[in-house]
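Discussion board: Methods & Data

I've been asked by a reviewer to show the raw model output for two of the constructs in my manuscript, not just the figures. I'm not sure how much to include, so I'm pasting the format here to get opinions. Each protein appears as its amino acid sequence followed by a line of discrete structure tokens. Is this the kind of thing reviewers expect to see in a supplement, or should I convert it first? Here is construct A:
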Amino acid sequence: MATFFQRLAKAAPIAFNSSFRGQSKSSFRIPFGAVAAVSGGISYLCYHSSPDLVYLDEIKEQTGPKVALNPDKWVEFKLQDTARVSHNTQLFRFTFDPNAKLGIYVASCLLTRAPLEQDAEGKPKYVIRPYTPISDPDAKGYFDLLIKVYPEGKMSQHFASLKPGDIVEMKGPIEKLRYTPNMKKHIGMIAGGTGITPMLQVIEAILKNPDDTTQVSLLYANVSPDDILLKQKLDILAASHPNLKVFYTVDNPTKSWIGGKGYISKDMAVKGLPAPGEDTLILVCGPPGMMKHISGDRAQDRSQGELSGILKELGYTEEMVFLIQQ
């Protein structure tokens, strides 16, 4: 396993919330509350209609696949191993029962928590942070988190201190974007830093499905070439899949850098993204400064908010843009 992770970090950094703006959002996402209401109605119907239906419903619940995650309960996951991906980013592999499925869908994240603080009475106070798995949602018995370790980041510093065998409590999934194959003809993506993680979920879901013909264009911004996460993975995917185009830009280029320079500009967006249209969707995920520049950030209630920034200036509408919480 140690050799595997060393090779992984060296060669290919991986081996492996919310609603739409405007009136069209219901066509892309079914809120959890609606799912619960429908499920509750079905259970009521089964219970009051026929003993046979009740029996069949119970059998279905008993024989269905086990799910490792729970949206309503904190579950312990054991750290198997770690690998350094960049100067400030690490990969963390956690394990679970291989006979179960993790319970993550595209695209969603999970919550992590750790008792890193105390309240006024000296009782544990939890720090909670969301992270997006970058491994295949169908992977058996493990999942991977890619985490940037910040000097003042309480949770990321906690992750950096973990050793194989340590436990982390997690809960989920937390919905970001409910992706369905061919939901749009062309999807444009703008990512900054670790905002690449939900984009990768969507990209890999598209590329591994031969029936999904979606065209994907990614603009990926970072501080420097060394900060570009998953670059080799993305380059390999782009080279082997003609429906994926990737463009990189960095704030501090080196002399040998041949990609974009500076913040994502209107010109970069025009050249690298699909044009505004009914069959176009633009996904945006990154730090607050980038979001403000590109599209405006999400509203205080975490809804999509009002579109602004260069995407609005280029003619995209709120129905064409979806902001993903990092």
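Construct B, same format:
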Amino acid sequence: MPRDVDFEELIADGAAAPVEGWGFDWLAGRATEERPPWGYARLVAARMATVDAALDIDTGGGEVLAEVPHPPRLLVATEAWPPNVPVARARLRPIGASVVAVHPDAPLPLRGGAFDLVVSRHPVRTDWPEVARLLRPGGTFLSQQIGPGTVRELSEAILGPLPPPAHRHPEQAVAAATAAGLTVVDLRTATLRTVFHDIGAVVWFLRKVVWTVPGFTVAAHRPALARLHERIRTEGPFVAHARRFLIEARR
């Protein structure tokens, strides 16, 4: 197949595939990412089995929560991206979870002190005072978060050199949690190898993980995509590194 046709077909494929929810099954065979060593989903499942009331903030399509084998009596999830809300509701209905559609950066419409456990996987932004408000005394917040400069290599392949990351540092999260009156009891970090085998996978990833290249569109970034496609074609899969941290805090 001619190189230009191959490029066009791959980017069209990545641009057309749905990105609702927070699953990454579409990338099977096209991209891989190492998993953090702590096993977030297993940690959440274990904690859920020991509490009476729990909340999942930024649930996405409910992918992690749906795997909880022993859900608590009261289980609530919130989601701010409208296309994800019906996906999460359908997925979480079998385990009895309620999904509340919310507005980004607005207080959650939930009663304070209602939850023994609040969890959040890859939150867009953690509102630490709001987390403290929602937890009962002695309650726990457990979250896997995006670390600073995650997949920076991919961002720079599209945008060019970038300044050092100013946000999402674990130390900033600890300071914010402490300022909100919480006590941080666990903090772990991981750097994870992320491999893209074709430019279609890159396009789909950038559409889904929108903070990697803010304002990404195929049309606006076509020259950079073409350069990266040629690099993958001649040098092999493109390797970047995702950064994650696990934080646990108690009220």
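Answer (T.O., handling editor elsewhere):
This is acceptable in a supplement if you add a one-line summary per construct. For B, something like: The mean pLDDT is 95.
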